[in-house]
Amino acid sequence: MPVSHSILVRKATFADFSAITEIYGHNCLYGTGTFALEPATPQEMMSRWHEIRQMDLPYLVAVEADHVLGFAYASPFRARPGYRYGIEDSIYIHPDHHGKGIGKALLSELVTTTTTLGYYTMIAVIGDGENAASIAVHKSMGFVETGRLPNAGYKLDRWLDVVFMCRELRPLDNPPVGAGWSQ
């Protein structure tokens, strides 16, 4: 289903963090998009936002009439410098707004922004191998499944696979052109 014309994807602001914290907290308690079991505090969520912003990476929200429906951000895939040209996406949607194209709209903007910033590869680490919606959204955006870790996590009384998906953002240069993220 296409995203509504009244939904806007934009950079997250301080004013969005009550809703962002609520959306993430719901996923911690009832979802498998994160393996966290306890909700983060608003201060922890804002600290993560500041870290992402300090690296000039996108942290986005999807809003309709000033209501945050979902959020997404790009972060380093791994901390070691050899990974600096690869980026990981994270997307969380309010439970009342699944299936409306919001995840795809957020992912599309993450792909566009990180490509412009000079990254080469985007990696999705999907915390539930049965999350057909997330896998389908990533496939629709050109991601391919590159690996699966069976029974890598346990949450909500069941074992969970972790699915790795990957998308090349631009042709590879050797050596890479651009700074990537820096520590």
TrEMBL record:
Molecular function (Gene Ontology), one example: acyltransferase activity, transferring groups other than amino-acyl groups
Every N-acetyltransferase domain range: 7-170
Keyword terms, alphabetized: Acyltransferase, Transferase
InterPro entries linked to this entry: Acyl_CoA_acyltransferase (IPR016181), GNAT_dom (IPR000182)
Pfam families xrefs: Acetyltransf_1
PANTHER family, sorted: N-ACETYLTRANSFERASE, UPF0039 PROTEIN C11D3.02C
Protein name listed in UniProt: GCN5 family N-acetyltransferase
Originating organism: Asticcacaulis endophyticus
